[in-house]
Specification:
Blueprint lengths: L4 H6 L3 H12 L2 E2 H8 L3 H14 L2 E5 L5 E5 L1 H7 L1 H26 L29 H32 L3
Helix pairs in contact: 3-4, 6-7
Length: 170
């Protein structure tokens, strides 16, 4: 996302950033925003003009008494870019963990070489199993990717629960 002059001006106020964070959870009307940020409705309206002109917020008029403000896609990118990164980290870590685990398991498969064939009447010697040393580096790779996967998943669950506690079950 590119930030132009209007977007930079809209993000230069702590109140406007607070409005964007408030709209992250759900759409709100002007008096809700004013009450949540403890500002007057006229002040909230002035800030909303900047946010509307920058394209971070959209006004939804459904023909009822209240007009609702909600984040646009651009506004969502400004407010929560970390969640997108977390999902990407989680997905790539999961894929890495699967490949590392597969590689680790394949290290313990015995390599056998049979002498003779099934049609041979002579005694065939038993399969030779080659011993390999414990693949410590692969074990550390599996352990590390599993740890990163767990931490990332825990963070996402924590954020989800925190969001539900703060804003209720929306």
């Amino acid at each position: 996302m590119t930030i132009n002059k209007q977007t930079l001006k809209a993000l230069s106020s702590d109140t406007r950033v607070g409005i964007l964070k408030s709209l992250k959870s759900r759409r709100m009307h002007l008096s809700e925003i004013a009450a949540k940020l403890q500002i007057s409705p006229s002040t909230a309206k002035e800030h909303m003009v900047y946010l509307l002109s920058s394209g971070l917020v959209d006004l939804k008029d459904e023909g009822r008494k209240w007009k609702y403000y909600e984040l646009t896609k651009r506004g969502q990118c400004v407010v929560s870019p970390i969640e997108i990164r977390m999902v990407l980290v989680l997905a790539s870590t999961f894929i890495g963990a699967v490949f590392a685990f597969n590689n680790f398991i394949n290290k313990f498969k015995p390599v056998s070489e049979a002498f003779g064939s099934a049609n041979d009447k002579t005694l065939a010697s038993p399969a030779i199993i080659t011993q390999t040393s414990f693949p410590f580096s692969e074990f550390l790779l599996v352990l590390l990717t599993t740890l990163i996967l767990g931490i990332t998943l825990g963070y996402i669950i924590f954020r989800y629960k925190e969001k539900n506690l703060l804003y209720g079950n929306l």
